[in-house]
Design a protein that fits this description.
The N terminus is likely disordered. This protein has 7 helices and no strands. It is an all-alpha fold. It is globular, with a radius of gyration of 18 Å. Helix 2 runs antiparallel to helix 5.
């Protein structure tokens, strides 16, 4: 084995170890956001018990989604051979981590918590991300774009269901939606391909399972 090959393999091993460390931090530690959560112009409205219950359940779902999203992107980043794409994926994962922190903080403010199945959401999504990355960079970018499109659709649904009185939660979801749209458009501009219909349906079905379960657990 020549020195160059050894360095490449060692570098990959180092990245794998770093991913284990990152996974533990996401699942077990209090997330810290690099960006401050958006605030509404007026958050003085008092929420009813039903409004609070709905909001904290939706934020638990979104927390699970952000846990999965950053795991997906970090899984893709681990296996891509393109350094620029790797950095783009890690940047997107970092923004999803901001969203994660916002969702957890808001859920706690509403008197709730996060899904107890976070380890499952993270590990399963990381494995899917690795598989998507191994399919090639164009497919990986297409997977990122489609993921963000489906997340955007979920956020739009949550904004429709959320009480108009809950302007604090609404401000967070609106900023998350705008960020996800940018991620999706950026991935397609980088050369992402449009995924086959059956793949999109499988992604949607998997997402449905996660959102349904995390709404309750």
């Amino acid at each position: 084995m020549d020195r160059f090959t050894h360095q490449r393999r060692q570098s990959f091993v180092d990245r794998c170890l770093a991913e284990v460390d990152n996974a533990l931090r996401v699942i077990m530690a209090e997330p810290a956001a690099a960006k401050t959560a958006p605030l509404p112009a007026d958050d003085s409205a008092t929420l009813s018990n039903d409004e609070q219950d709905l909001a904290r359940r939706l934020m638990r779902v979104n927390h699970a989604g952000e846990t999965a999203a950053q795991a997906l992107y970090r899984g893709q980043a681990l296996v891509t051979q393109d350094p620029e794409l790797r950095q783009d994926l890690l940047t997107a994962a970092a923004e999803e981590h901001d969203h994660l922190a916002w969702c957890q903080r808001r859920a706690e403010q509403l008197g709730g918590g996060v899904s107890r199945l976070a380890p499952l959401w993270y590990s399963g999504s990381f494995a899917i991300g690795v598989a998507a990355g191994l399919a090639g960079d164009k497919a990986s970018l297409g997977f990122l774009a489609e993921t963000e499109k489906q997340v955007t659709a979920h956020l739009e649904d949550h904004l429709e269901r959320l009480s108009e009185n809950d302007q604090t939660t609404r401000a967070i979801l609106e900023q998350m939606r705008d960020d996800e749209i940018q991620h999706s458009e950026g991935a397609m501009q980088r050369g992402g391909i449009n995924l086959p219909g059956p793949v999109k349906k499988i992604m949607a079905a998997t997402s449905k399972v996660m959102t349904t379960v995390s709404y309750r657990v």
